[in-house]
Amino acid sequence: MDPNERGSTNMERAKMFLGLTPDESEAVSRLAVPERQAGEGKSFFDAFALAGIRVVRVEPGLVVCSFKVPPRLTDRSGNLANGAIANLVDVVGISLEYGKGLPMIVTIDMSISYLSTAKIDDELEITSKRLGKRGGYTGTVVVLRNKTTGEIIAEVLKQILCKFHLNLPLLEFLDGDSLEVRQQTTFLCARDTFRLKRK
């Protein structure tokens, strides 16, 4: 078989696997996404990805939350999607350092070990602990576990940077609803901070 033919066959299979089924396509088309101005209420991202997180306990250097797996965050197999897991542990991990009026906080490195899966309606516990802090850098460990069985779903080591202030135009840019916008901005902020440190 010609290598080009094999490559196109693999590409077609990948497209078919990643493509939406008619039911999935219809479900997406029914989503109502209201327009929103920057800084006004919850964003689509907050409502879709973060709704349902409940804070159980907060202590210095420790945040414990619970979360029931909703159908909207599952993959085709009915498991909590890896992207949703990454998002949940990132948000809960950053919450250790968050404070109103403090400089913006960004994750600069995150290593996730996916150890098990969670199904729809599983009750999860997300625990974030501060490992240490030096200057504007904080090291944290976040553990996502099934509350009923105690099984660890994911374990995360993160590095957080929180020692710089943003100018107003960048803050307005951050209020966009797009996860892509937030991720790109996080990368730009971290990159600019490293550039400042090198001078």
Task: Detail the topology: elements first, then pairings.
Layout (H helix, E strand, L loop, with lengths): L2 H16 L3 H8 L14 H7 L3 E6 L2 E7 L13 H13 L11 E9 L8 E12 L2 E10 L5 E10 L6 H7 L4 H20 L1
Antiparallel strand pairs: 1-2, 2-4, 3-6, 4-5, 5-6
Pfam family, one: 4HBT
Catalytic activity: a fatty acyl-CoA + H2O = a fatty acid + CoA + H(+)
GO molecular function, one term: fatty acyl-CoA hydrolase activity
- How would a crystallographer describe the biggest sheet? 6 strands, antiparallel
Separation of the first and last Cα atoms: 55 Å
Q: Can you give the mean pLDDT?
A: 75
Strand content: 25-35%
Structural class: alpha+beta
Write down the domain tally.
Answer: 2
What form results from the Cα inertia axes? globular
Subcellular location: Cytoplasm, Cytoskeleton, Spindle; Cytoplasm, Cytosol; Mitochondrion; Nucleus
GO cellular component, one term: cytosol
Domain Thioesterase: 78-129
Subunit structure: Homotetramer. Interacts with PCTP.
List keywords for this structure.
single chain, 199 residues, alpha+beta, Thiol Ester Dehydrase, Chain A, 2 domains, six-stranded antiparallel beta sheet, 6 helices, globular, disordered C terminus
Provide structural commentary.
This protein has 199 residues and is of the alpha+beta class. It folds into two domains: 1-30, no CATH class; 44-198, Thiol Ester Dehydrase, Chain A (Roll), CATH 3.10.129. It has six helices and six strands, in the order H-H-H-E-E-H-E-E-E-E-H-H. The chain has helices spanning 3-18, 22-29, 44-50, 82-94, 168-174, 179-198, and strands spanning 54-59, 62-68, 106-114, 123-134, 137-146, 152-161. It has a six-stranded antiparallel β-sheet with strand order 1-2-4-5-6-3. Mean pLDDT is 75; it is low at 165-199. Homotetramer. Interacts with PCTP. It comes from Pyrus ussuriensis x Pyrus communis.
